[in-house]
Amino acid sequence: MAIKVGMVSLGCSKNLVDSERMLYKLRKNGYELVTEAGLADVVVVNTCGFIKSAKEEAIETILELGKLKEEGTIKKIIVTGCLAERYKEETAELFPEADAVMGIGNNRDIVDVISHVIADERYINFAPKLSAEMTGGRIISTLPFFSYLKVAEGCSNCCTYCAIPQIRGKFRSTPIEELVKEAQWLADNGVTELVVIAQDTSRYGEDLYGKSMLPELLRQLCRIENLKWIRTLYCYPERITDELLETIASEEKLVKYLEIPIQHSDGDILKSMKRWGDEEKLENLFKHIREKIPNVILRTTLITGFPSETQEQFNSLAEFIKRVRFDRLGCFAYSREEGTKAYDFPNQIDEETANHRADIIMEQQMLISAENNEKLINAEFEAVVEGFDRFGECYFGRTPNDAPDIDGKVFFTSETPLKIGDYVKIKITDTLDYDLIGEVIADESAE
């Protein structure tokens, strides 16, 4: 009887791609994959260790699995990912219930690791992080019509608040030909929406080709026949070039959507973060983007409560957001992370103040989003079907203006049955703060 293996993938979409590669190796080597941890003999936990809340989630997950192991429901636990890579020996010592603790460089050896734990050998190993696998087969674990394409590993920006460089190593790109091959495989296996990701996607190719090759990569991806929507996340503001903007504007398959994390608008705070820009530069950038790509959807992320952030600087940030009016926005309270330069900065802001400021920004953004959505009543959009809400008795999905997992939904009715992955034309009839309500006005799939 095949050994049953379950995967718990925590954190970001980049981590999810790592999980999918491990799953592929396991299935290829005869292991039976199960979707519920409680049904598995062996559970692999791919942890996140980026900020405090992510670490807490990882710890809680390991402890919960430990209880299942103690009860005899599962037999073995393997811990990998960013938490294990960041804290190494501490993770092995703190979690005796973990039969294996390994770094991200060991993910490629997951089959061998399972053989060790099945033989009742505790496996503790941390291969060089730069040996982390960047290509290879995957099992698509998202909805079947969309997938992520991770184009690079690591980060070399060294922002003062961020532990990613010490966890994942320096920025390194995957060659274009390998990415196009992987994207073609995804398209051949039913993927119609591709989300291009990295820690800094706009830096793609600099290490291999001497300049950013993101525009060229996107143009090559657009030639893949079965792909319909291609979206790019995590572009840094200082690397937004006219070539990139013109590529997005001119290529039909590239959705008119850019996620540009700016983290703040105050020049002094940004300098302290080791980030680019100030209010004037950022405001000019977003104005320029909107001129180059009419009707572009702009998304950003912000940090409140960074060390030394004054009330005046926070107020200026809030006013900046009102002026720029981002279409999508996420705001997070600063997380003080050991090993980062900002950890030792003077004038640390207390958590309560940082969280309160983040709440104010998100309340403000909710009003902006609601106002923007009101203007969309009677507008028509293409949408992709993600499922059926049996309580609301309607379908739900997304328009090109919304990225998977992080943005809003559209809820809609249809006179004919639909299936996940169908593309339909929607007329908006009502709105919520972040979501839309509509009805199908064209039954034919817009493939």
Structural features, described:
By secondary structure, this protein is of the alpha/beta class. It has 3 domains: 4-129, Rossmann fold, CATH 3.40.50.12160; 146-369, pyruvate-formate lyase- activating enzyme, CATH 3.80.30.20; 380-442, Nucleic acid-binding proteins (OB fold (Dihydrolipoamide Acetyltransferase, E2P), Beta Barrel), CATH 2.40.50. The chain contains 14 helices and 19 strands. It has helices spanning 13-28, 52-71, 82-87, 89-94, 110-118, 164-168, 176-188, 206-209, 214-222, 242-250, 267-273, 279-292, 311-324, 351-374, and strands at residues 4-9, 32-34, 42-47, 76-81, 100-102, 123-125, 146-150, 152-153, 172-173, 193-197, 229-232, 254-259, 297-304, 328-333, 380-389, 394-398, 410-413, 423-431, 436-442. The strands form 4 sheets. A 6-stranded parallel sheet has the order 2-1-3-4-5-6, with helices on both faces. A 6-stranded parallel sheet has the order 7-10-11-12-13-14. A 5-stranded mixed β-barrel has the order 15-16-17-19-18. Helix 9 runs parallel beside helix 10 (242-250) and helix 13 (311-324) packs parallel to helix 14 (351-374).
Kindly provide the radius of gyration, computed on alpha-carbon positions and rounded to a whole number of angstroms. 22 Å
CATH architecture assignment of the largest domain: Alpha-Beta Horseshoe
- Give the assembly state of these chains: single chain
Q: Termini distance?
A: 42 Å
Helix content: 25-40%
Tell me the fraction of residues in β-strands, as a range: 15-25%
Query: What is the H level of CATH, i.e. the homologous superfamily of the largest domain?
Result: tm_1862 like domain
Q: Write down the CATH class of the largest domain.
A: Alpha Beta
Which sheet architecture does the biggest sheet show?
Answer: 6 strands, parallel
Shape category = globular
Structural class: alpha/beta
The chain-level mean pLDDT equals: 95
How many helices in DSSP terms?
14
Q: Unreliable runs, pLDDT <50, ≥5 residues?
A: none
Strand order of the largest sheet: 2-1-3-4-5-6
Remind me, CATH topology of the largest domain?
A: pyruvate-formate lyase- activating enzyme
Total DSSP E strands: 19
**How many domains make up the coordinates?**
3
